[in-house]
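Example record used in the benchmark description.
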Amino acid sequence: MKVRKYSTPKVLFFICLFFIVNGCATTQKRQGGGRQEMSFKELCAEQDISCHWDTVSQIVWITASHFKAQVLMDSQLGLIDGEKVILSAPVKIRRSIVIVPFDFQRKLMEKIAKESREIKEYPIKKIREIIIDAGHGGKDPGAIGSAGTEEKEIVLDVAKRLKRMLEDYGIKVKMTRSTDEFISLQERTEIASRSKADFFVSIHANSSPERSAQGIEVFALRDLGYLEKDEAQRRGNHRLLFNQLAMKKYHADLEEILSDLLYHCKQEESPLLANCVVEGTSQYAKIKNRGLKNARFYVLRNTLIPSVLVEVGFLSNPQEEKLLKTSLHRQKIALGLAKSILEYASH
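Model output (structure tokens):
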């Protein structure tokens, strides 16, 4: 039998080749045409986020903070919170190892990992409970865009997302509505008056005769005159609130003092929160900042706690309506609102 002899350089070459081809089960990387393939398991470990591969459905799942992403095996199509992402190559499985294309990390992993890291930075200090008011509902659709998008659906979705985010950070949240139902303006303010909430945040979508109008704006209460302070609904809401306090009932002087204290607290805190919300959300969601404004809207006038009304965008603007219809944009708005509220709460 003839024995073939190899030189030392050739032996070293084949040894190196063996390790490159086989690699390690958790660190496999392949180079092809200048593009890199990566081990899905390794990426998950590096980003420190929850990932798994469902062998039954053949779907790769990634979860971080309030974003979820998934990719179907042997497919280039990925979804981040329902929004499509096209990868450079299909996700594959080799020797029971899930292999992803080079841009999987940039287009999916890094994005949701960034969201997860950013919202974890806030120590909660001054807010324990919030009322989230999704505007309109039921028989009242609110503003309607040219493509038929109804305000009531957009704002309810944003409100639900915001609720989940704030609850994750220990803030108790009560919603004036959590389904497509009609709740009167009077009922909304009464819900706030019966609660022990620190803030009332009403979420709406805007409309304007000028189709070019766009962006977010946030309203706080304009100063009220004597007659507005004596509005019947305000008097009734004061009674609802006072009935929950450990105080002598129907003590006129004490009630007047408490009413004044509540009003001054509301007028001091509301603009601060409103400014924080409009600045933070516009920056995070990358939408035009239309600034802090003052108004005497019913829910601002008749809630007794600090209150803001957020107009998240214009359904009358076709481009902004298209954005508001996307799950990813609504997620960005909700996350911007959450981060702004947490920022305010932590200072």
